[in-house]
Amino acid sequence: xxxxxxxxxxxxxxxxxxxxxxxxxxxxxxxxxxxxxxxxxxxxxxxxxxxxxxxxxxxxxxxxxxxxxxxxxxxxxxxxxxxxxxxxxxxxxxxxxxxxxxxxxxxxxxxxxxxxxxxxxxxxxxxxxxxxxxxxxxxxxxxxxxxxxxxxxxxxxxxxxxxxxxxxxxxxxxxxxxxxxxxxxxxxxxxx
Length: 192
What we know:
Blueprint: H1 3-9, E1 14-20, H2 23-36, E2 40-47, E3 51-58, H3 60-74, E4 78-84, H4 91-95, E5 106-112, H5 115-128, E6 132-138, E7 146-152, H6 154-170, E8 174-180, H7 185-191
Antiparallel strand pairs: 1-3, 1-4, 2-3, 5-7, 5-8, 6-7
């Protein structure tokens, strides 16, 4: 069973993340998060610009408590965070790049200054309109920024982009949103 299959069985579980601008503090805060409540550690690693991310899942109360502990221990090193109580089932496969290849449609791209704001925006996008989430790129090799790609019909992608952009913009972390109504197949294939 793949990680995506395992996650889809419990997609109603909450997902939480804390992003730090200090690796040492990130490691310390991750330990505190894991000791605070019964959560499952999904990702704990460094990303570009010397940042560190901790992604975990569990029931909503446990994830909220763990994220709060991470923010408390990480204090001023905390860049961004989120708790998503009912994660959309497309988000986790896009995070681990195991989404099936979608059909060619309009292409939407959201770029953010933090990984946490990108994941939150991606979840908002797929909950807003009938779009297919292709991939979420998490701050590795791109200066600590993040972006996600999605496809669908033009109206759905536009609606999803607007919702996702609002989520990232509310946190002051939106870099750009782009809609390409008819992408060339070569570009689309390069992204999937």
